[in-house]
Design a protein that fits this description.
Largest sheet: 6 strands, mixed
Shape: globular
Number of helices: 3
Helix content: under 10%
Distance between the termini: 44 Å
Amino acid sequence: MLPPKSRISAFTIVATICHASVALAANQTATLSPVLSGEGLPYRISLERYDFGADPLPTLQSNAAGYYDGKWVLIAGRTNGLHGFGAIAANNFPPQYQNREVWVVDPVAKQSWHRSFDDASAGLSEEEIRSLTQANNEFYQRGNRLYMAGGYGLQEVLPDDTPVNNTFDTLSAIDLPGIVDWVVGGTGAAADHIRQISDPLFRVTGGDMFEISGRTHLVFGQDFQGNYVPGSNGIYTEQVRSFDIVDDGATLVIENVSSTVPDPNYRRRDLNVVPVIRQGTGGQLEEGLTALSGVFTSTNGAWTVPVEIDADGHPTMADPDDPDTFKQGMSGYHSAKLGLYSESLGEMHEVLFGGISLQFLDSDTGQIETDSRFPFVNDVTSIVVDSAGEYSQHRIGEFPVLTDQQGNRLRFGANAEFFLADGVEEYDNGVIILDALTAPTTLGYVFGGLAANGPHARNVPGVTSLASNTIFRVVLVPVPEPGAGLLGIVGMLGVCGMASRPGRHRREHGNLE
């Protein structure tokens, strides 16, 4: 392990050592910023497996999630592992693994309930069910209402029984109290609590959707039409689409639609888009978004330079050719995540749990390695933006060691969701108030997503992936007196019982001026 150095010196090391190997990946940039340790951060993060008891849990990944009355509400997604890569396109997303059930999970009582949209009491047509059971849709929660847009899944079955998948153009408003009553108590019909509209604006999968001050932003993603075969691509939006959702509980419409000019630098999907708090003019706190990394460049590489999005939905990106620009190598694919902001330090921290990554810590060598085939990893990282707006990336931990029946370690986090624990103080946009955490605290739970028993699950004998039903408790331990020295570097950097709610929602109270 290298001794602590300044960020400039560390970057020089990475630029020198990693240039050749990273360039071969055809990533956005040929170099990556250093991966620092967690030394000097004002907290430590730990993960532990949570015992849910005897009630069943779904194997689920790439789903939407809401929260009501101390319970998680899980809708859509897929129940199997990584999609197929075969020559027969219709077999790569088998329709039988499309989740057609609604799950309600109480993590405190350790109880679960589920009911299928196919149940006659749902009152839904087959077309409506398919538009509610896609994978990789975009969603957020406002109050007790969950909004879902787009997503990819089964749209029709041809006369010869061939399934055809497409990206949907549907926006759904789901009233969670009614849906929970339907699932848990058998009350009413599911259709009574769902409203939908269609518009090409929503035909997006693999992007993300957030609300800031009443305005909804649909960030990046793609429109993938037809069945998937290896090497095929959808039409990337390369833009932020913004609109107002007007919903009185009976009528659902959108107004004031605007879209940014498509930019090839925003050709991104399956990424972590995160809500952030920033220091605005006069020190006033402001909400925004940051799009971290993502895939794929036009040359099948990873994006490395974050995109900052302001409250009006306008994206900007630093110059990738500037040697001082931050270039992300860790945690580039959609994963469970949480945000922390310290007003006293003026720092934003985005904690990313496992997933798929361009870089990872090799446990055998203790080195940070780069793998342009994007392996499944267990690393927990934090992307930090300091008071001057400077970015850094830190490896701060890993998932607990869990193995399959053959003793192979499982890798978690990709397409999983984080559920925030009740009682944890947050800003309007769900970012946790770091300064309020003065003792060890359960922040929430990571649930679902993909689990793989090796770094690469595509055409590798003995390596496979599945949809996980494991819950991990996330605990933060504050570090009241961070070391005064500069942050250390990990390795030789590229040598080649609380209730909880989903962390991607807007809560109806204000902490911002």
